[in-house]
Design goal:
heterooctamer; A alpha/beta (393); C alpha/beta (185); E alpha+beta (84); G alpha/beta (297); A: 393 residues; 7-stranded mixed beta sheet; 6-stranded mixed beta sheet; 39% helix; globular; C: Pyruvate-ferredoxin Oxidoreductase, domain 3; two-stranded antiparallel ribbon; binds thiamine diphosphate; binds iron/sulfur cluster; binds magnesium ion
Chain lengths: 393, 393, 185, 185, 84, 84, 297, 297
Amino acid sequence: MERVAVLSGNHAVAHAVKLCRPHVIAAYPITPQTQIVEKLAEFVERGELKAKYIRVESEHSAMAAIIGASAAGARVFTATSSQGLLYMHEAIWSAAGARLPIVMAVVTRAIFPPWNIWTDHSDILAQRDTGWIIAMAESNQEVFDMIIQAYRIAEDERVLLPVMIGLDAFSLSHTAAPVSLLDQDKVDKFLPPRRAFSFLLDIENPITMGNVAFPDHYMEFRYLIQKAMERAKQVIREVEEEFYEISSRKYGGLVEEYRCNDADVILVLMGAWSGDAKECADKLREEGLRVGVLRIRFIRPLPIEEIKRVSLGRKAVIVVDRDISFGGTGILFTEVSSILQQNSVTVRGFIAGLGGRDVTAKDFAQMVKQVYTDLEVGERRSRVEWYGVKEVI
Amino acid sequence: MERVAVLSGNHAVAHAVKLCRPHVIAAYPITPQTQIVEKLAEFVERGELKAKYIRVESEHSAMAAIIGASAAGARVFTATSSQGLLYMHEAIWSAAGARLPIVMAVVTRAIFPPWNIWTDHSDILAQRDTGWIIAMAESNQEVFDMIIQAYRIAEDERVLLPVMIGLDAFSLSHTAAPVSLLDQDKVDKFLPPRRAFSFLLDIENPITMGNVAFPDHYMEFRYLIQKAMERAKQVIREVEEEFYEISSRKYGGLVEEYRCNDADVILVLMGAWSGDAKECADKLREEGLRVGVLRIRFIRPLPIEEIKRVSLGRKAVIVVDRDISFGGTGILFTEVSSILQQNSVTVRGFIAGLGGRDVTAKDFAQMVKQVYTDLEVGERRSRVEWYGVKEVI
Amino acid sequence: MIYEIRFHGRGGQGVVTAATLLAEAAVFEGLWSQAIPFFGAERRGAPVVAFTRISNKPIRIYSQIYNPDAIVVLDEKLLQLRSILQGLKSNGIIVVNSSEKLKFPKIPSQRIFTVNATSIALKLGLVVAGWPVVNTAMLGAIARVLNIISIESIEECIRRKWRGEMGEKNSLAARLAYENIRERD
Amino acid sequence: MIYEIRFHGRGGQGVVTAATLLAEAAVFEGLWSQAIPFFGAERRGAPVVAFTRISNKPIRIYSQIYNPDAIVVLDEKLLQLRSILQGLKSNGIIVVNSSEKLKFPKIPSQRIFTVNATSIALKLGLVVAGWPVVNTAMLGAIARVLNIISIESIEECIRRKWRGEMGEKNSLAARLAYENIRERD
Amino acid sequence: MREKIVPISTPAKGAVGKTGFWRTFKPIIDREKCIKCLLCWLYCPEGAILRTDDDITIDYDYCKGCGICANECPRKAIEIVLER
Amino acid sequence: MREKIVPISTPAKGAVGKTGFWRTFKPIIDREKCIKCLLCWLYCPEGAILRTDDDITIDYDYCKGCGICANECPRKAIEIVLER
Amino acid sequence: MTITIKSLSREEYLLPGNASCPGCPASLGLRLLGKALGKNMILVVPASCTSIIQGPYPKTSIKLPLINVIFASSAATASGIAAALEILGKKGVHVVCWSGDGGTVDIGLQALSGAAERGDNILYICYDNEAYMNTGIQRSGSTPYGAWTTTTVLGKRRHKKNLPMMMVVHDVPYVATASIGYPLDFIEKIRKAARYKGFKYIHLLAPCPVGWRFPPSKTIEIGRLAVLTGMWPLYEVERGKFRLTGVSRSLLDKSKRSPIVEYIKIQGRFSHISEEEIRILEEYVDKLWEDIRKIIS
Amino acid sequence: MTITIKSLSREEYLLPGNASCPGCPASLGLRLLGKALGKNMILVVPASCTSIIQGPYPKTSIKLPLINVIFASSAATASGIAAALEILGKKGVHVVCWSGDGGTVDIGLQALSGAAERGDNILYICYDNEAYMNTGIQRSGSTPYGAWTTTTVLGKRRHKKNLPMMMVVHDVPYVATASIGYPLDFIEKIRKAARYKGFKYIHLLAPCPVGWRFPPSKTIEIGRLAVLTGMWPLYEVERGKFRLTGVSRSLLDKSKRSPIVEYIKIQGRFSHISEEEIRILEEYVDKLWEDIRKIIS
Ligand SMILES: Cc1ncc(C[n+]2csc(CCOP(=O)(O)OP(=O)(O)O)c2C)c(N)n1
Ligand SMILES: Cc1ncc(C[n+]2csc(CCOP(=O)(O)OP(=O)(O)O)c2C)c(N)n1
Ligand code: SF4
Ligand code: SF4
Ligand code: SF4
Ligand code: SF4
Ligand code: SF4
Ligand code: SF4
Ligand SMILES: [Mg+2]
Ligand SMILES: [Mg+2]
């Protein structure tokens, strides 16, 4: 059996990346991601990882550098968070448009102003249009596993899209927990070296990447990205199956269903607090409330079929967002309720836990109970409210 | 009566901005926005507009500069497009978080790679989470009118949020069309000088803006932004009424309804091509199809009530997106269908016109007819498809 | 009533200016209009197009023009382009800056006009960077054949754009073209 | 079974390291664990907290710890903080690095232990930048009172973290504290 | 209220509390040796040395005990002792 | 197919067509005067002057008529005429 | 016109009870800035240790109007404020960027260079603690050769970017270097800079006990050693005129400079440095002074 | 070791039928780059005229592997490519950034400076047409004093940013200036630069007929006048060693320099320049050379 180490989420990322043998890493420090880049820099400097480590002067350049490296055929990695992610926004679009199989870890953190370094999913979700595959982990173990799978997904010829793996600031990034590692040879077998394609930068095959496309050509490239996203769903499932072979671990593909089968009410969320939500489900079941948890692992590609299937015939679906699209509403809520259009199920949304405000199993229970109470008095209207906001500040 | 001038959308913006007497303008050129910043630079250099014009070295700095100026009490303006908008993404969040009444024109344009300078709404819609009020104009006249109203909305004490006004690349930005101008004194009355608030940078009242907020404080600031967004809906309607007094022009608040009253099918979209959609509605009505157009003027704050009301009891709602959230679907489609959750109306989405691919009234008619045909054979399922993609490229 | 005109010229010839002036003249006449540039690589000498759309009602469409009622060609050489008459209505009009009798494949129901805008420009000394300025003359020509916008409106809009002598010369160019345009077989 | 421990110390004392080592020792024992730092301004000398959560089942919650079973105080001076015992379970345990008999307001059902980690550290020459290193000694003490993790596991994990002499000294510190911890009234 | 819609803060001593609590070492002025040169006042990063007319005192509520004053005092008039 | 999933382009002469068509002025070499110094070849931004062994010819398919060659020819061996 | 300690105001603009580490050069620098200019200034602070030093909402330790800004944007934000003040007719208010080395030589460089090129009326002060300290000591473009950081665990392989000289190339009216070891020199330079309209730049060396690994009591001492060893020449460039200041005036003569090991040996970040690396640093210092000699001559 | 025209390859890497304007200095520069290095290079091109010159999908006029990149990112992208080539063991391939002045001195400066500081193995060439041409002639940090652009309709009020000297401050192995008026000098410098490992910078003055308002036949002539009038000194700095090159070698002596009006009067962008403004430009040129004199001495 592989070694179990007690690792912070950040170090879990660094160890997973190392096992994937990236050629080029470029990153810029930001709390709470720094441990990732520090650890990787150390691996490289100490010769434990044969890679070039580019100490870029900003996140925009971090993404640009790995775009360049990836276009030249290298396997690449970067990590960032919050402001850093926003600062590289333009380059993020660029990576996807160029169809480069980049992998990035994103430690999700609240957005300035005011400064706040704690978890919040607004940063990663604000990138959901960009053409990246976007996943969120629930545990340090899953972060480790997801990173390794991410390369397989990204580099799959049916996909060729960059992948972002999210982990919650502090609750995962800095919390140390046991992680089962994998042996290098197993990972090597699972993840062979990156294949060279004919659209890479190569002096023997001079091509131009990304020159002007007039209106009669541009749209097709966008369509192809969307097609790749659709194919990615199947690839994600397949890769997870294969990963299971080497690790005996699997999570359920695009989503994880926890006690959903017979549930009346489904909690839908993503990230670290899903564990607390499961705890809540167990507790409430002891009280006789049939609660399940649908954890969104991949928000892009959007698990439309899964969400639809699991929501079918429930009394209520409760979406808990650790984010807000101002002037709209919770981003998961919007996506989930959009999927459930033409469906009469009650979808209740809660905006909670922004900027690291702690949310416990008890809080989830309170949300669920509130919904049950409303249902009992016949109040079935879908709507969103904020949870745990102090009235005066 | 005021003078009618034949102006490109860009020049309409510049003239409107001039009438609003901004103190500080900072901008960076990008096709197809350049005419805006060139015209304004000229106004300033020739002494026609008493303002400071900062010729910044990037869009990130453009937004930063007007954040600084606005925080010091100035009325400010910038304009950008596509890559420039993405490059300032981090600063965009910052402006809203600081609650600064900034106004920005966004010439909507496709995103690299490949290079494409034509219209596409993905750039502006990718900013929909940031806390900005976001509107799209249909005509050069409306661009002109919206800019002037934008300052009133942004600076309203109930709102205090930045506003983005979108206009389609080339179809508005470079197409010259008649625009009724307004006299300076009328605009001065409509838009009084910006009021000083106690949270501005002022040596007599030393305060710190944006320092760290721990988890016990951060969330409330986010909540207040959302509250302001909700109040903005009413403010937008009021401001339009007042603007009507000086201009005799109004468009309908957050949305414009065109022949919706008795419509069976509603086309939902935003921006310049709405005019072509209206043309289509008129034509199809001649053929006996009762089609209406619901034009989204403001996508943030999201016109939830309006969309719900107008969609009620229709045979179908057709959402046409000039954008795509990869791995999800059309952004308007997602928003609209989310609003229509628990509603059985058929919502059909089309992704069309990306990267400036032209869409005409005929194209809209084809979409509508396809939906009618499906309805006739009893196919009522909501779904999204791409319109006008060539199979092989 | 909606009337759509396509201008063909070469980068540097002021094709967009022509389209815009025509739109302004339409507004001056109390009509509605749009001037639509097509943005490509507008290099000096490279083929360029622009459009004007004129109507007696407010124009709300912003899609492109596929079937123009008239085509204005500022440089005869452009007639070599295969795409030059593409989409022209079967009863459309062609106006070419030319000194010669044109042999040109067109549908019989279409009408073709020529005017020697180059010689007008040269005569008036309208030359910039070695090139005769022909766009204003062509506006006079199109005014004549369109017959919805008076030459006076064209002249007025030209004079508003360029004050002083330049305005006078350019409006005179339009007038001369207006008077000297010929229909060919 | 779930067991939650809160560590109080001051910036520079290795509070997070202590929490993490305890978590590692738990895993070494075949248990499950988490070590949770609380991130504030961890300036040298400023009060700092960290947590360890131990369970015999996989731990899936990531929310914070509000009602710890035990509180470990690395610096006696911190007892002045009003918040020091906040949330401690009514049957909770307090372990303080102290040389004295403590007079300290607590609920009678809570138990209080002291160990002179500072003198252990000084005796072993465990001093960094003028400060005695007490975090490893305190781990020995907590092992004793928790009674779910053996001192051997603590020693092993310490030795894995610091190879050589440093490891030996630190594990010895833990052992000495394990042996010298006292319960007070 | 209007003030509070945006994340602004107002100046206050002890924004993170009485930071004298962080002290491990404590500076003590020997008034015999001190020549009131004010160098310690100038160098103290905390502004924890108070200057009254031409005398100085240490504000132990906020002195973090860095020891700069002692290190820089030309007369070695400041002693550093372990905080109790 | 795989090539075409990303926006890449392949090198080709005349990527925007035969740009000789853009020409207003036309350079004509006077072979009498020309001393084959190749300066025109070196300076032509288009690469529209072809160098065959030690002779030169202008590729009118692509010459844009900028006139640099004429301006720079040390022998004034290139004449610029209006394009017909 | 040298400043005396006694002449300095007792008013504090960085209030005690803030969140700096003991012995922090950044907080001392801020305190001195307050002494130099008093209340008539607006501070612009990008992400850095100073973001933390202020303390958290709803309080702040800084008794000046201060705007926290995103990391890359301090100079541009300041340009905007300066423009606003000018057009709103608010006279006599200095707009001061207070930025770390990372926010200056790396991610903030572009905005800085842009503002300098435009000649915007701001005073930009970089407090240079030679690494990203707020995020836990990662290398920056300003980290010196050989120094350990968490991203250069074997010592940095590149020399420090010479930002002050880059600013001199921008041809702005005032550029100066300063060291926290010489507070009065720093104050004097701030005041001098503030007399110019246009873009002014001061680069303050700020030895950080946490990141450089030395006891907090040594901040000033190390700030002095940097100068005395010639590692950090003090100078100012007024309207293009270069002038060494303070003790640096005598250090063109190499024999007057203390050996750089005196500076290096008391810093933990250099604890693993080799003889060869010290030689490279020495050469670097010699070249620094060689270049200065050329400019002066 | 001077290069002869005859020795240059006939192979073209910028194919005819591209979308440059007639008389374009950027396209000539690209052509010369091909002559200098041949096929063993990868080009990185940020948004600029060169993005258009290539022509649109599915064709390209450039017969080299080329990646178009977002405006601010060319140097960083190049760093990534160079790193990839190194670790993948692909030897002998030059990574060349081909960037406009806007993409170099303004929005691309930060990435450029970062790559230089790191010493990444790339050759950065800035072709400087002194404005944002691709977007229609807006001022850049590299636009000279007095020049009309669409955002400085009365003439720019600030001097040109001196990027080459800033790169010299970065202490990279090779920095040079060049002018399109002297193609062989340019080629020679490219080849010299390519021999160094690490970061190399060449700043090519590229007079643009469209933006500078002169007839397209004068591109070379104006490129020469820039040098002859002393407005644009040609030099190279190898491992810190400064050397004037070509005709500039004799221009330290002011009397050998042609009057700058010869350069200015044939450019439409300077058509409204006043006597006073010309004087300011002259002073600027004198100072340029004064600084060079200092460096050389
Ligand atoms: C875009 C962006 N990237 C990264 C960060 C994270 N960050 C905050 S402060 C900091 C280090 C600042 O270093 P420096 O400017 O030298 O100031 P110091 O902390 O040393 O005072 C970093 C990397 C950020 N806030 N924003
Ligand atoms: C982030 C961003 N901002 C603005 C632009 C628009 N833009 C494209 S090219 C260009 C001008 C380039 O100027 P320069 O670098 O000098 O090259 P030139 O066009 O003169 O060749 C600009 C402003 C862009 N593509 N991306
Ligand atoms: S530095 Fe020493 S001598 Fe001077 S005032 Fe302070 S204690 Fe007194
Ligand atoms: S020890 Fe430090 S904080 Fe305390 S008074 Fe002395 S210098 Fe100030
Ligand atoms: S430059 Fe003149 S002389 Fe030289 S080869 Fe060309 S045409 Fe002949
Ligand atoms: S005119 Fe210009 S493009 Fe034609 S051959 Fe001469 S230099 Fe080349
Ligand atoms: S890390 Fe250094 S610069 Fe930052 S607050 Fe602490 S002592 Fe000051
Ligand atoms: S604008 Fe100037 S640099 Fe750009 S393509 Fe045209 S001639 Fe070349
Ligand atoms: Mg720093
Ligand atoms: Mg340029």
